[in-house]
Write a structure and sequence with these properties.
Elements: H1 3-11, H2 14-21, H3 26-31, H4 36-50, H5 56-69, H6 73-83, H7 91-101, H8 106-119, E1 129-132, E2 142-145, H9 148-161, H10 170-173, H11 175-182, E3 198-199, H12 202-209, E4 217-220, E5 225-227, H13 228-236, E6 249-250, E7 254-255, H14 266-275, E8 292-295, E9 310-313, H15 315-320, E10 342-346, E11 349-353, E12 359-360
The chain binds zinc ion.
Residues 279, 281, 284, 286, 313-314, 316-317 line the site of zinc ion (ZN).
Length: 375
């Protein structure tokens, strides 16, 4: 057993570990070298699992099941984070019991937990507004919450001012253009031009065209969504431009076209954006408008510039994508450099092929609204 396997074996004994922790004080655990914050969150969790409760039978049965299933501290912590939002008598333990019995991945259990908490009204919705933080080290923070359209228009305006500034982190270079705008020395908000790609299925397009688009949600490559009605209004106002691009996609082969060129042309880029409105790397949320065109089979390895070999990837993931692996063994493996996997097209869709051989897709909201999901 290597250290990783030992670690994983210990991970499945969370209930036993928490039981021992429930007999200790978090301050004693802190003096054993644990962060006080961590010690407190463990003992709070232990209190929930072994302390007095309004649902003793459910508590007893769930703890026994969690032990039998070898659930980890991380999993139980996630369960608790969501369950404690439910205040109605017995509701928290009902959710804990469901999640402890939930037979799927951590991520699916968490998605289910969020859904349940929202249904029972345990989550407060974000409210539009401007919030100002206190002074920390001579600096203050302002945060603005508003509709996705208004914030994205602001973002686009600031982005045009920093287009060629690649040396500094994005947050840093956006600052001065932001103040220029506030102080009125800039050119004002940019009226959005949807050169941004919009994807819509033919069925929905028919509905929208007949003025029945209220329930149709259209996804855009700048990371936002529009209702069908907003889409028609934008078309009427002329902000969709005078050209309407139509991409042809095959359910298993991916995007269809006949181009063979060294660099992705505008048209190919547009087609790739329509397929992936956000970077397809799992858990990434960079919208396609800020992504780069990536060759799935690298050009240097004979990959062609044709639609089915292209995808959008954000700058970061384009950089970490392992162009040479894992399909082809490197001649000289570079020690120390972690392998992150590479993008592959599998059954028509772009997915991450992990070094361990799994195919993982991005589950971002907009990922399920791209062109390949409409057919
Ligand atoms: Zn990315």
């Amino acid at each position: 057993m290597d250290k990783y396997e030992e670690f994983m074996a210990l991970t499945s004994q969370a209930i036993g570990i928490l039981k021992d922790m429930s007999k200790r004080s978090p301050y004693d655990m802190a003096s054993d070298g644990m962060a006080r914050k961590t010690a407190k969150s463990f003992t709070t969790l232990a209190d929930v699992l072994f302390g007095p409760t309004d649902s003793p039978r459910l508590q007893r049965e769930s703890v026994a099941l969690a032990e039998e299933r070898g659930l980890s501290l991380e999993y139980l912590d996630m369960v608790e984070k969501h369950a404690r939002k439910l205040k109605k008598r017995g509701a928290a333990w009902r959710l804990r019991a469901e999640l402890i019995a939930f037979e799927d991945t951590f991520e699916e259990a968490e998605a289910y937990a969020k859904k349940r908490v929202t249904e029972e009204g345990g989550d407060t919705k974000k409210k539009p507004g401007v919030r100002l933080g206190r002074v920390v080290d001579g600096l203050r923070t302002i945060s603005i919450t508003d509709t996705q359209r208004r914030i994205t228009d602001l973002e686009k305006t600031l982005d045009t001012a920093v287009e060629n500034d690649n040396d500094r982190p994005r947050s840093e270079s956006l600052l001065e253009p932001f103040w220029d705008l506030v102080e009125g020395t800039g050119t004002g908000l940019i009226r959005p031009e949807y050169r941004t790609v919009i994807t819509i299925g033919l069925d929905d397009f028919a509905k929208v065209s007949y003025g029945k688009g209220e329930d149709v949600i259209v996804a855009l490559s700048d990371g936002t969504t529009m209702t069908g009605a907003e889409f028609i209004n934008a078309a009427m106002a002329g902000s969709l431009g005078d050209k309407l691009y139509v991409g042809l996609f095959h359910p298993t082969a991916g995007p269809v076209n006949l181009y063979e060129a060294r660099f992705a042309s505008d048209k190919l880029r547009t087609l790739a954006m329509a397929e992936n409105l956000v970077c397809p790397w799992p858990d990434c949320n960079v919208p396609a408008d800020r992504c780069q065109v990536h060759h799935i089979d690298a050009h240097k390895n004979g990959g062609h510039t044709k639609p089915s070999n292209l995808t959008m990837l954000c700058k970061y993931h384009n950089g970490v994508n392992d162009d040479d692996g894992p399909r082809k063994k490197r001649k000289r493996p570079s020690p120390g450099k972690p392998k992150r996997g590479r993008m592959r097209r599998h059954r028509g869709k772009v997915r991450l092929h992990t070094p361990g051989g799994r195919l993982v897709e991005n589950t971002h909201d907009l990922s399920s609204k791209g062109a390949m999901d409409l057919i």
